[in-house]
């Protein structure tokens, strides 16, 4: 049975975490979530997502228990604060390099904030969130994609694509939950997104379990007619 380690932190985008986790489990992938944190340990560990939803991971992120000898895939979701915490963690950076060196899959989705997002009156927050996992891990120049808000940080270091999902050898990247319009007086109340979390998750299933399993999982989800994935 294939296995996947899915990282999470305070501020992780809930859609990117839960849709990926859920879809992989439906395909029979043995998933474990690990909480990357900056603060003191609490029991049980609980991550507060970017929309305020609390998620209880399977445990804390422990580098010794997270290597490519333990899992077949590593998944790094986005969300502004979560992406910052995860991508700045030196153990995670090493883990990304180790997984790719061992021929294991690494999936990264979004890792940024929407265009025009205002957080506590600050419009520069997204621009300063430049230390994304692919960048901080020192990966070689190759095709990838991300949320549109962080193109400037990536386009000179990588071969940037605007495709929903990009596969470069064992690195799978995706754009995220989509562009949002946020009313600063009612935070998150007007969040609108189409999103690429599902096609990202399906691509992970396909690469871990094969195209037949992808179709097997896709059918019962009953997406509306015309859905492009």
TrEMBL record:
GO BP terms, alphabetized: glyoxal metabolic process; response to oxidative stress
Enzyme nomenclature, EC number: 4.2.1.130
A Pfam cross-reference name: DJ-1_PfpI
Residues annotated as domain DJ-1/PfpI: 3-112
An MF annotation (GO) of this entry: glyoxalase III activity
Superkingdom to which the source organism belongs: Eukaryota
GO cellular component terms, A-Z: mitochondrion; nucleus
Catalytic activity: methylglyoxal + H2O = (R)-lactate + H(+)
Top enzyme category: lyase
Name the UniProt record assigns to this protein: D-lactate dehydratase
Upper taxonomic lineage: Eukaryota, Fungi, Dikarya, Basidiomycota, Agaricomycotina
């Amino acid at each position: 049975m294939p296995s996947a380690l899915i990282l999470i932190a305070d501020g992780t985008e809930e859609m990117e975490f839960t849709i990926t986790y859920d879809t992989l489990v439906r395909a029979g992938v043995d998933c474990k979530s690990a909480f990357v944190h900056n603060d003191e340990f609490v029991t049980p560990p609980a991550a507060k997502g970017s929309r305020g939803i609390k998620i209880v991971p399977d445990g804390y992120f422990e580098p010794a228990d997270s290597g490519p000898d333990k899992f077949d895939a590593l998944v790094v979701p986005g969300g502004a604060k979560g992406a910052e915490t995860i991508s700045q963690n030196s153990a995670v950076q090493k883990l990304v390099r180790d997984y790719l060196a061992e021929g294991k899959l690494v999936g990264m989705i979004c890792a940024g904030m929407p265009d025009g997002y205002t957080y506590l009156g600050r419009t520069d927050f997204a621009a300063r969130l430049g230390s994304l996992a692919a960048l901080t891990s020192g990966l070689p120049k190759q095709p990838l994609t991300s949320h549109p808000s962080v193109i400037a940080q990536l386009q000179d270091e990588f071969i940037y694509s605007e495709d929903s999902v990009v596969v470069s050898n064992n690195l799978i990247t995706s754009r995220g939950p989509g562009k949002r319009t946020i009313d600063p007086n009612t935070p998150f109340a007007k969040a609108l997104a189409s999103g690429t979390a599902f096609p990202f998750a399906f691509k992970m299933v396909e690469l871990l379990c094969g195209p037949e399993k992808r179709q097997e999982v896709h059918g019962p989800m009953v997406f509306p007619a015309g859905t492009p994935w």
